[in-house]
Amino acid sequence: MSHLERDTRQCIVDTAERFFRDIGYQKTTVADIAKALRMSPANVYRFFDSKKSINEAVAERYMGEMEAAVTAIAREKRSAAERLRDILITNNRINSLRYLDHHKVHEMVAAAMEESWEVVQAHIGRYDGILRGVVAEGIASGEFRPMDPQVATACVRFAMTPFCHPMLISQCLSLPGPSIEAMVDFILAGLGYSRAKVSHAEA
Length: 203
Prior knowledge:
Number of domains: 2
Strand content: under 5%
Distance between the termini: 56 Å
CATH superfamily of the largest domain: Tetracycline Repressor, domain 2
Helix content: over 70%
CATH topology of the largest domain: Tetracycline Repressor, domain 2
């Protein structure tokens, strides 16, 4: 793909994201996107074969940005517990800023989950890989108790679902429940982490 083609594809995704956010996924047409770019719909279809595939590109961008942020944290030279805490809180912060009270964005996400589940599933797999790496390091270092890192990772992700799922963040705010900080503390305790234990080991 040439530089010009990459730029054109990027412009299509940028424009589609704006339309999906402002008027909603269902109301947006490929013709709307093409008109905004002063292109023909046929030209848009040279890059994306459907509105669904454009939405997949927007969703992949959103998910990729979050993955990049938590990957950077995972690679830091700090304790596994500190990194896991920051990863979970960063995921919540990014998704809250992006999806909280943005109902048109919810529509786009719902479409991606219904029509392009394989894209969402691939993201979950990559995110789990990031979490699993940090959890495994914590187990190896003695910060966390011995356990299966894959099972532990699945439990961590499921526990955090109300704080990170795009469709649930706003709904769960109105329900009684723990703060994000309290939930992360609970997860770390479930993994066997104890500040006192770590301080004693370092001493």
